[in-house]
Automatic annotation (TrEMBL):
GO terms for cellular component: cytoplasm
Gene3D superfamilies per record: Diaminopimelate Epimerase, Chain A, domain 1 (3.10.310.10)
Keyword terms, alphabetized: Isomerase
Pfam annotation, one family: PhzC-PhzF
Keyword Isomerase: yes
GO molecular function, one term: isomerase activity
Keyword Isomerase listed: yes
Protein's UniProt name: PhzF family phenazine biosynthesis isomerase
Entries under InterPro entries matching the protein: Phenazine_PhzF-like (IPR003719)
SUPFAM superfamilies reported for this sequence: Diaminopimelate epimerase-like (SSF54506)
Length: 292
C-alpha cells in the first residue's frame, strides 16, 4: 500500500468534533479501487474521498467511497474535500470537483465572523415517485399519524436518491428507528436506500428544521449531516412551495441524536423547468496523517 497522506475534517460542524467526519486521501491515482474500498472500510466514516489529480483550471478528480463501496456523489465529502484542496493544494475560493455525477462547484463565503462557509451548487433535483405513509411507518417503527399529511413522501435526487419523509414533530423524529426486515423489503420494491426524515420543530429556534438520515444500505446506520439529502430537501421545499414561495433559504439541524450536532444551510429557487439548489456549512480541520 502506498504511503499516502490523508486529512480528517468535520463537515457542517457547529464546532470541532461535531458535524460529519470525513477522511481525504491525497495522491490517490496510484491506489487501486479495491485499495480505496479497503481504506474506506478501515476509516469507517460514512464516506472517505480520494483525490486522484487535477488542477484549478480543469477541476480535481475525486472518488467517494462508503464502507460498502463507491458512490457517485455525496454532499459532505464534496465540501470537506474542497476545504482540503484549498488548504493544502492551493485551490482558490472557487474549486470544481469532478465526481461520478459530473463537475460540482464549491465556493467559500464569509459568514461575517472569523469562520467561513463552504457552499456547493448541486445538480438540479429530479422528483420521483410519491410513497404511502403505511409503508414508511413500518420501515421506521412509527405510526401513520406520526407523518405530516400536508406534504408528500417523495423520492428526490440530485445525484444520490433519497426519500423525503415529513414528520409532525421532534417526538416522532426521536422515536424513529429502522426496522431492518421492512427496510429490506422497501429497498427491494423502491430501490432507494437513503431515508431523510424532517420536521419543522428544531431544538434551536435559530434553525428551521430538525432532520435525521438513515442509510443502512450504504453501511451507514445513521448519518450526522447529509449534504446530498439536504440538497434534495431544498429542492423539495421550493418545488412544493413549503413556505408559499418558489425560493427558500433555511437552516437544518441534524446529528443531535448521535452527539454530532450539525447545521446545514440550504438555498433553492424553483425556476419552473428546474430547481437551483445550494448547500453550505462550516468545515473544521481535525488531523493529518500518513499510511504506513
Amino acid at each position: 500500500m502506498p504511503q499516502n497522506a490523508f486529512h480528517t475534517v468535520d463537515v457542517f460542524a457547529t464546532a470541532k468534533y461535531a458535524g460529519n467526519q470525513l477522511a481525504v486521501f491525497e495522491d490517490a491515482d496510484a491506489l487501486r479501487s479495491e485499495q480505496m474500498a479497503a481504506l474506506a472500510n478501515e476509516m469507517n466514516y460514512s464516506e472517505t474521498t480520494f483525490i486522484e489529480g487535477g488542477s484549478p483550471d480543469d477541476g480535481y478528480d475525486v472518488r467517494i467511497f462508503t464502507p460498502d463501496g463507491e458512490i457517485p456523489f455525496a454532499g459532505h465529502p464534496t465540501l470537506g474535500t474542497a476545504a482540503v484542496l484549498r488548504d493544502h493544494f492551493g485551490a482558490g475560493d472557487e474549486v470544481t470537483l469532478n465526481l461520478g455525477v459530473g463537475p460540482i462547484s464549491v465556493e467559500v463565503r464569509s459568514d461575517g465572523s472569523d469562520s467561513e462557509q463552504y457552499w456547493m451548487t448541486q445538480n438540479a433535483p429530479r422528483f420521483g415517485a410519491e410513497l404511502d405513509r403505511e409503508t414508511l411507518a413500518e420501515v421506521l417503527s412509527l405510526d401513520a399519524n406520526d407523518f405530516d399529511a400536508d406534504w408528500p413522501i417523495q423520492v428526490v435526487s440530485t445525484g444520490l436518491p433519497a426519500v423525503m419523509i415529513p414528520l409532525r414533530d421532534r417526538d416522532a423524529l426521536a422515536r424513529s428507528e429502522v426496522f431492518t426486515p421492512a427496510y429490506r423489503s422497501f429497498f427491494d420494491d423502491v430501490g432507494v436506500e437513503n431515508l431523510f426524515l424532517f420536521c419543522p420543530d428544531p431544538r434551536d429556534d435559530a434553525n428551521d428544521f430538525a432532520a435525521r438520515m438513515y442509510a443502512p444500505g450504504h453501511g451507514v446506520a445513521e448519518d450526522p449531516a447529509t449534504g446530498s439529502a439536504n440538497g434534495c430537501f431544498a429542492g423539495y421545499l421550493a418545488r412544493h412551495r413549503y413556505f408559499g414561495d418558489d425560493e427558500i433559504e433555511v437552516t437544518v439541524e441534524q446529528g443531535y441524536e448521535m452527539g454530532r450536532p450539525s447545521h446545514l444551510h440550504l438555498e433553492a429557487e424553483d425556476r419552473g423547468d428546474e430547481v437551483a439548489v445550494r448547500v453550505g456549512g462550516r468545515v473544521e480541520f481535525v488531523s493529518t496523517g500518513r499510511l504506513v
